[in-house]
Amino acid sequence: MGYIDPIVQRNALRAIKSRHKASGKCRCGRPVAKGRKRCIACIGSGKKWIAKRQNERRKLGLCLVCGRNVDSRFSACEHCRETQKRHLQRLKREVISAYGGKCSCCGESEVAFLTIDHIRSNGASHRREIKTNRIYSWLKKHGFPTSDFQVLCFNCNCGRHVNGGICPHRSARLAERAG
């Protein structure tokens, strides 16, 4: 067998992957998993590869994301932590604005004070059901469902929790109306 130029080989593989992608298949040629871009086998091998790389980086004391040196208190470098923080803030602003951008009880609009509330007070069971604590990502992925969620400030959200599902603002308003 003769010498194969690595550039020619790489371009040939890219062409094959492009044809698979254009025909709706995984880059390996298998059918893609429902709602995904890759097949189950490639998804699994990718997860194994990422886990192996992270374990190697953890042993060396490197950032699990990019491989840079890290402070021993963290598993990610400062750059990756800041990037993640900005991403989560942007995602939170997007989700909060999709649900009205202000507390549905008291009208607070400062995003730092706002959070998503499960209207039926079933947040813990919902998180167990969907198997994630990343509620903002889940809401975005599922098209911002409106029937079970609302924006509340942390005060109103905690107030609902300790007051049997009714915010103290609302119970005070109900008392005024009744009295």
List the helices and strands and how they pair.
Elements (H helix, E strand, L loop, with lengths): L5 H17 L17 H21 L17 H21 L15 E5 L4 H8 L4 H7 L7 E5 H9 L5 H11 L1
Antiparallel strand pairs: 1-2
Your description of this structure?
The protein starts with 5 loop residues before the first helix and ends with a helix. The relative contact order is 0.07. The mean pLDDT is 87. It contains seven helices and two strands; from the N terminus they run αααβααβαα. A two-stranded antiparallel ribbon has the order 1-2. It has helices spanning 6-22, 40-60, 78-98, 123-130, 135-141, 154-162, 168-178; strands at residues 114-118, 149-153. It has a domain at 1-60. With 179 residues, the chain is mainly α.
